[in-house]
Amino acid sequence: MIRFRNWRKVYISTWLSWVMKLLMVGMIPYELFRGGYVFAVLIVVAVIASLVPSVVERNYNISLPFELDLLVTLSLFLHTFIGEGLQFYNKYWIWDKLLHLYGSAVIAIIAFVVVYSFHYTRKLRLTLPMIMLITFCFVMAMGALWEIGEFLVDVTFGKNAQKGLTNTMWDLINDLFGGVIVAVLGALYVKYSKPETRHRLAKPLGEVFGLGEKVDRVKERLHGKH
Fold it and tell me: pTM score, two decimals?
């Protein structure tokens, strides 16, 4: 549990991730009240899934790059809170396509990082093209499982998650694009980036706009009045 006095040392991505988690949790009572039990369960699953990167990093002492916690949480937040909760899927036809492209890219990043980590630590020796191929295949497999899940929801609960064959095929095509883009960019990053540039894209909250120093000045003024 993060102690309040250490708030300024927490990464911005961590704060954003937890805000989105709390917003998703806040939807559960409303969904239960209006009878959206299936969607309430989906939110619970999404929140649990969004905790996986943090749990892995904490319990296994692994420093995950690319701010995976934020990327995973954002993907689930855009799907549940924005897409389903605020009805963006129904209001904007392109929302579903963008989410599939972004979601597949996040899955591809996770796959690439995991496979490359095994290669880098010599637990599994692979060529860079093979790492790219595994990343691509994993994304397509997850995309197929997602479509199967939508089909089962439609059959079991009488929903219309798949929205027809054409929609399903475009979803898989977007998965393909996301997998290819991340596999290529990941390979280029590994091959051409310098070791000193491979740092985590994060910044402590206390450094944003000098927030930590401003809070200290406010505290000094408050103490000075007493």
Answer: 0.67
